[in-house]
Amino acid sequence: MVALAGRLRAPFARYWLSEFMSSFGNGVRLAAFPLLAAQLSRSPGAVAAVTAVQGLPWLLLGAGAGVIVDRVDRRRLMVTADIARAVLIAALAVAVLADAAGLALIYLTAFGTGVGSALRSTAAVTCVPRMVDPDDLDKANARMAAGQILAFELAGPAAGGWLFGVAAVLPFTVNAGTLGIAVLLLLTLPAVFAAPPRPEPGAARPRLAAARHDLAEGLRWVWRHPAIKDVTIMAGVVSAMDAAWFAVFVLYVAKVLHQPPGAYGLLIAVGAVGGLAASATSAALTRRIGPWRTLLAAGLGVAATQAALGLTGSVLAAAVFQVVSIWALTQFNVTAVTMRQRQVPDALLGRVTSVYGTVTQGAEALGALAGGGLAVAAGIRAPMLIGAVPIVVVTIGVAWRHRHRAAGDADGLDGTDGAAPSEPKAS
Predict the structure, then answer these.
(1) What is the dihedral of CA 168, 173, 174, 175, to 10 degrees?
(2) Of 4, 18, 112, 235, which is most buried, counting CB atoms within 10 Å of its CB?
(3) Which burial class, exposed, middle or buried, applies to 255 when counting CB atoms under 10 A from its CB (0-12, 13-18, 19+)?
């Protein structure tokens, strides 16, 4: 698996493996949380709330996560977040073993792990430019995406569904263990993750005032850069509508496709094949047709496959649509993250990344809640069919606003429009 890190240097390979182990545990939990909730309640709203609660920390933390990331050592923050999540998950495992885990405890654990994930994922994006040369960022992000897909969408959910079938406590035990391994790997990396040096306006500024200043600075940067701002809005809509149907996917598998619980994890894993294909070709594709065309085509692909899932009752067709959907999502995500890393100054990258994360993850939480409500009001297929419409609308809107960029393929990836200065890399 480490070979997927390719020709990139040894520290990046260890960093990649740390992300893989963390994502694998998250994938195991991704399958286990809804299964555990569905064991306690058959209500679509109650099951969908598990997904929604994991995204709520983004709405509460907001860009504040980026303020923290830009002010502290990023590796130390990731280590702390992983240890805290491991403790929470281990506590849930004990409760499951004692047959004392209710919906309230599941929601509490989901929220706590969501806080840790918000901080860790924001820090993780800012670390990649410290590990590789600027020209290799698209390749590095593609390899990171491949690892996350293998772990989070392929191996993790399949293992989570199978482990849950053996014993409900096993997925959570495994998740806690993989986070421990991720921490050990992070501790082997060179010390290149310190907060970037930057001038401090007003040395005597109180901490709260300084935090507000940093937060406002990050928000202003996003607002004044149309490309990053509009891609962030588009990503929020895609995330919300994707979460709307995925929040009730476990019920879709059971009630629409008429499959046993184990098929839920397997369908997620099958869909990951599309993500692996995208991660292997995304750098070449964006260099060939351009990043803007890639983003717009991916948005339309997500909408089309989401609607197709809502129209089919065949498990084989659903598997094919899953593959294409994850392919499109991966193309979009890899291109969007590379755009941010190349355009945003390093001292602001944590805050801009957390603004992006707040929009996408917050939209995911709201989308999951909406998906549960739609499923109750109009049936399990409704979130898939209705949710495709906003994705098409926002994609067409972004295409029109940036038609000159799409036509000329100018998105600032060559260093224009506020490119980040280069940083010394790990050796």
Answers:
(1) 100
(2) 18
(3) middle
330-347 average pLDDT score: 85
Distance, in Å, from the CA atom of 169 to the CA atom of 172, rounded to the nearest integer, reads 6
Contact 57, 118 (CB under 8 A): yes
**Residue indicated by tokens 């879709």:** 252
The torsion region of residue 31 among left (phi > 0), alpha (psi -120 to 50) and beta comes to alpha
Residue 250: which residues within 8 A CB-CB, separation 6 or more?
A: 34, 35, 38, 47, 261, 264
Copy the structure tokens of residue 34: 């809804």
SS3 content of the chain, % helix, strand, coil (to 5): 80, 0, 20
Contacts of 115 by beta carbon, 8 Å cutoff, 6+ apart: 57, 61
Contact 24, 153 (CB under 8 A): no
Q: Look up residue 400 and give its two tokens.
A: 């029109």
Cα 32 to chain centroid distance, Å, stands at: 18
Work out the number of other CB atoms within 10 angstroms of the CB of residue 200: 10
The amino acid occupying position 128 is V
Is-contact 201 213, C-beta < 8 A?
yes
User: Which class for 381: exposed (0-12), middle (13-18), buried (19 or more C-beta within 10 A)?
Assistant: buried
Q: Tell which residue, 126, 30, 151, has the closest CA to residue 69.
A: 126
Residues 100 and 106: their CA atoms lie apart, in Å, by 11
The two three-digit tokens of residue 74, written as one number: 């990023």
**How many whole angstroms separate alpha carbon 335 and alpha carbon 291?**
6
Q: Which residues contact 41 (CB under 8 A, 6 or more apart)?
A: 47, 103
What tokens does 54 get? 């994991």
Domains and CATH numbers, the chain: 2-195+222-408 (1.20.1250.20)
DSSP 8-state class, residue 41 = -
Q: Which residue has the tokens 């339309």?
A: 300
Give the pLDDT confidence score for residue 4 in this predicted structure. Answer: 38
Residue 393 has pLDDT above 70, yes or no: yes
CA 172 to chain centre: 20
| Integer Cα distance of 422 and 127 in angstroms | 13
Rounded to whole angstroms, how far apart are CA atoms 396 and 406? 12
What letter represents residue 375's amino acid?
A
Q: What is the pLDDT of residues 146-187, one digit of tens each?
A: 888 788 877 887 788 788 888 888 999 999 999 999 999 999
